[in-house]
Amino acid sequence: MQLIIDRLTKQYLNAIAVDRVSLRLHKGVYGLLGANGAGKTTLMRMICGILKPTSGTVTCDGLTVSSEEYRAQLGYLPQDFGYYPDFTGMDFLLYMASLKGLSRSAARRKSVELLNTVSLQDQAKKKIKTYSGGMKQRLGIAQALLNDPNVLILDEPTAGLDPRERVRFRNLIADIGKNNIVLLSTHIVSDLEHIADTILMMKAGQLIYEGKWDGSHEDLEAFYLQQTKEEGENE
Question: Are residues 168 and 227 in the same domain?
Fold first, then answer.
């Protein structure tokens, strides 16, 4: 499996949000770091086919982002995912499963499985508007996994999770990354130290660093700050 991002660019009038980013992603967990406005979310939205690039292409094993086959193998959790507050957690997952083309029996089986995975089984019949921020985020993670995606794109997935939930989430993502491509953006650098196989860094729309990470030779947060510091900024 290979996700190829070739000179991907997004320009808005005179501002370039993503500037000729090229990557080849294989099975594993890729941690994407960058300050607000670095272009991370724009890049992810183009990979998911939500945003049309100004130029460049995205393909996965020869499939383009516009194809049904590409979308069928994609899971996506946006930074602020939409939900219906009067739906129960189970109703929401069943609804999302139908949109992803799962049969009724498969949708129910997968929804039950994922509610257990994200520890929401006891809240399945409660309305989402009663959920805490962390519970809503866990539900978002569950919906991204409904179709057993080969490519999983997660934009700030640990926002709102408490430390115990974050550990559970990291274990889940590490397991998924053994056989799939996971691209994970976060401001919580410590989350990536535990699960990322490769670290990517963006600054001003450009990819400024790509490298394997084994956690043994450097403090990731210090390394990130060094890579992204502004010109003239003190050490």
Answer: yes
